[in-house]
Amino acid sequence: MASISEERDRLARATAAGAAAHTAGPERERLRLPYGWGYLPLGLFLLVFPLFAGEFWAMQIGAYTLILGIVALSLMFLAGFGGMVSLAQMTVAGCAGYFFAIFGHSSVEAISLGWSAWLSMPLSLLVATAFATMVGLLASRTEGIYTIMITLAIAVAFFYFTRQNYELFNGYNGFAQIAPPAFFGLDWRDPTLFYYLCLAVALVCYAAVVYLRRSTFGLSVQALRDNQRRMRALGYHVAGHQVAAYATAGFMAALGGLLLVWLNGRISPGTIGVGPVIDILIIAVLGGLRHPIGPFLGALAFVLLDSFAIDLIERERFNTVIGLCFLAVVLFSPDGLLGLWARARDALARSGRPRS
Amino acid sequence: MADVARDPVLDRQPLAPRPLPLTRRQLRVGGAVLAAVLAAAVFCLGLVAGWWQLTGQDKRFIATVLNGLTLGALYFLVASGFTLVFGLMRNVNLAHGSLYLAGAYIGWSVADVTGSWFAGVVAGFLSMALAGLVLQLVVFRRMEGQDLRQTLVTIGISIVLADLMLWQWGGQTYQFIAPDWIDGTVRLPLVGMGYSSYRLILLLAAAVIGVALWLFLNRTKVGTMIRAGVDDRDMLAASGVNVQRIFCIVFAVGAGLAGFAGVVGATALSIAPGEDVRYLLASLVVVIVGGMGSVAGAAVGAVLIGLAEQLGLVYSPTYGVVYTFLIMVGVLVWRPQGLLGRRG
């Protein structure tokens, strides 16, 4: 038996969604960033940025932001479209990184199989996507707030497992000396090249999410978020759509995981510990879950804070700062930085030309 | 719009509910029996394995089972608060592990200053009960009904708390020293081996608290209100009960139990940064396995997980956590609402 309040909430949400859709949704339009020309300077900046910025900026700020953005984008896809807040996205990413190290080359000769990158790369993506699908199968057994509990439990269990298992994951130490494969005879360890690789993958993922948003699949997932029961009544396979969403997001997170392991050159349980797992949620919420650009904004803010907070406060207190930022966003701006931006623009527009 | 207007009809429950083959009560009792049988089966399997070990003059198994039960007792103390808060307020308190750790640290400091272990236990309980009360009154009351937002806030709180505790108490490991008269070794009858008397007392204390909690929930007026609230919050409010007061009581008791478990657990084991995550994971799994809002379910789940963890740790050290995980998966596949939970 669903309680009365849940029933009422669901009805209110469905009614509000219907009303918003039919009154041409000014709410929705307001949050959309300018398309077309507005993106040109941003695109140009992203392209030329590594040419004048130093190595540190290209790798530790640029590439790192894009990678965290990709993983957070996969969470945004699940949570923003599907209403499924999965805390296992970093775990999926780490799974891809781990299996790339296991199939390919690393410092741990006894475990790494030393296969060609053309084999180990797709295989690790496949394993991670299969893992994400299984997470989806489990999480879709229940609904609502249970999702966050189940995915967190999976993430923490996987973290403990990699830490205590030496046969496959090399326990506490993990793997080191993992290099990006030399496609096309280029050395992808070069900061500028690696940055462009991350940028390309990020753009593809971003475009995929923008496309999925308007696709039949994306629309059904969004409808599931708004009213599961109605979708079931209309004949949709609810769990099937949810699992497919988990698989899609899992593939995206796996791409980010591969890039991350190439950036760091190593992977250990610390990469997928509770801290990083929660950081992805922080990034996605900080940026805003309404638009695919949000996770990248959040990632930029996070990486900048992470790198430069040392100048403002003691290094050890970084978590307090980021935790307080996160609390402030959750408490005061539920739409994250994007929401702040939209609100600021509204305020400007209102003060600029007074309404009649 | 037409389809909006039609919505209440689409969303309504079917008019004539399908008759259940069994009554609810029978289902619940059946579930309890099933869970008990399952626990007994695990135990018997363990005993058989243990007999095999014992014939090899190995007492390790019994010690492991006792350790598993002790850990289960701790998990029960932590998770019973978590499950009650979740069941009644739909608030997934991901800061629950931090409350455990904070209770342990504060208890340690108080015990250090006063020199009394009991003062530490009381301080652990009271400080966290107070913290829970403040959290409920200041934060969660303002965002009632917004499940996700509440959970996000608890995540933020847990990050900040973990960092502040690291700042205050550092990264080293602390251990309590219990008073001499409870901290010794007893010789177990029949088995003929020694075991920590403190851990046996801990087991007993958890059982007593479990029974007290059950009596409180099933035999007192406030307990009845709490159970009613778990089933249907709105009907409870509509019956003229001050729901906010009930929420405060439950949050304070739940958080206090976590703080109490912190001190008691830190005496049996130890405390260090990172323990909060361990007990959070345990609480999550126990609630998923046992069922939301069910204290009996928390007990069954805690014992299962505690045994699985210890047996796994001893007999297959590199795959230990897999057993915990498999139990959770099995329950989700077979009974998504938890062993003793009811479909919400």
How would you describe this protein?
- The complex is a heterodimer of chains A (356) and B (344).
- With 356 residues, chain A is mainly alpha-helical.
- Chain A is 72% helix and 0% strand.
- Chain A has 15 helices and no strands.
- Chain A has helices spanning 4-22, 26-31, 39-52, 55-82, 89-103, 117-139, 146-164, 191-214, 216-226, 228-233, 238-264, 274-287, 294-312, 318-332, 336-352.
- With 344 residues, chain B is mainly alpha-helical.
- Chain B has a domain at 57-185 and 193-273.
- Helices cover 74% and strands 2% of the residues of chain B.
- A two-stranded antiparallel sheet of chain B has the order 1-2.
- In chain B, a hairpin with a 6-residue loop joins strand 1 (185-187) and strand 2 (194-196).
- Chains A and B meet through helix 1, helix 7, helix 10, helix 12 and helix 14 of A and helix 1, helix 6, helix 9, helix 11 and helix 13 of B.
Features of the shown structure:
heterodimer, A: 356 residues, mainly alpha, 15 helices, 0% strand, B: 344 residues, two-stranded antiparallel sheet, 13 helices, 2 strands, 74% helix, globular, disordered N terminus
A few lines on this structure:
Chain A is mainly alpha-helical and 356 residues long. Chain A is 72% helix and 0% strand. The model of chain A is unreliable at 15-30 (pLDDT under 50).
